[in-house]
């Protein structure tokens, strides 16, 4: 890390946390009330750094307020409470739409033929350094209507996956392509999820997690932070490796 960046972050972290921002956390961010006091202090150090270093853009006419930035950043900082991942150094911009948006897509069939089209999305991570979020989906989490889902956790966990190659050792069919405990445990949990979805069995994990190992990791990360007890009961080994990776144990967060 360049010395200037290191010193600037130290300077930002030492500044008093704005009272208006703390009020947003207390009134608008449910996870804040669950966090142990020590993690609340860490969150208040992380939030100003992310806001200072990342470019936030309102899209499709959205007036992106300071309150929205604080809410988004608060959730983005939860996964890095114990390991900063250099404050998502690969992330350049956070683009926020008012609602779901339409994105261009390309699909390849077995013959290599490319089909181009469009599909509605509520968020996505671009490997080029951007994360896109739909504010209407974030509001569902804030209002307790998301049933254990959290768009911010989902997209930021994609960034961590890309950074550390977390799912690169698992094929779309759940086969192991790399021999280590993380990969073996993740692949086993992914195969179980595929089986659950094919058998129409109830799961704490959203069905979207059966799309690919990358989506499975992000869906599992949502459940890890939002529905920790249920995830532990259903897939204790998956919970354990996520606990080890994030260095966090949300089950113990009782506020």
Automatic annotation (TrEMBL):
MF-aspect GO terms: aminopeptidase activity; metallopeptidase activity
Gene3D superfamilies for the chain: Collagenase (Catalytic Domain), Glucose-regulated metallo-peptidase M90, N-terminal domain
GO cellular component, one term: cytosol
Pfam families xrefs: Peptidase_M90 (PF06167)
InterPro entries: MetalloPept_cat_dom_sf, MtfA_fam, MtfA_N
Protein known as: Zinc-dependent peptidase
Organism: Rhodohalobacter mucosus
């Amino acid at each position: 890390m360049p010395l200037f960046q290191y010193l600037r972050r130290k300077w930002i972290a030492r500044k008093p946390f704005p009272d208006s921002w703390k009020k947003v956390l207390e009134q608008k961010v449910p996870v804040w009330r669950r966090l142990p006091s020590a993690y609340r202090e860490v969150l208040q150090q992380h939030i100003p750094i992310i806001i200072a270093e990342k470019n936030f853009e309102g899209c499709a006419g959205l007036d992106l307020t300071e309150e929205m930035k604080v809410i988004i950043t608060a959730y983005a900082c939860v996964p890095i409470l114990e390991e900063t991942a250099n404050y998502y150094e690969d992330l350049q911009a956070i683009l926020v739409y008012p609602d779901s948006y339409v994105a261009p897509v390309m699909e390849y069939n077995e013959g290599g033929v490319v089909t181009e089209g469009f599909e509605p999305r509520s968020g996505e991570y671009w490997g080029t350094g951007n994360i896109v979020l739909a504010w209407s989906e974030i509001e569902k989490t804030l209002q307790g209507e998301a049933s254990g889902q959290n768009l911010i956790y989902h997209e930021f966990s994609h960034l961590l996956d890309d950074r550390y190659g977390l799912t690169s050792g698992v094929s779309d069919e759940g086969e192991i392509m790399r021999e280590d405990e993380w990969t073996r445990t993740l692949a086993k949990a992914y195969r179980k999820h595929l089986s659950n979805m094919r058998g129409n069995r109830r799961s704490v994990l959203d069905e979207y997690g059966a799309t690919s190992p990358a989506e499975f990791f992000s869906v599992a990360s949502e459940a890890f932070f939002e529905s920790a007890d249920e995830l532990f009961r259903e897939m204790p080994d998956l919970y354990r490796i996520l606990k080890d990776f994030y260095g966090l144990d949300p089950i113990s967060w009782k506020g």
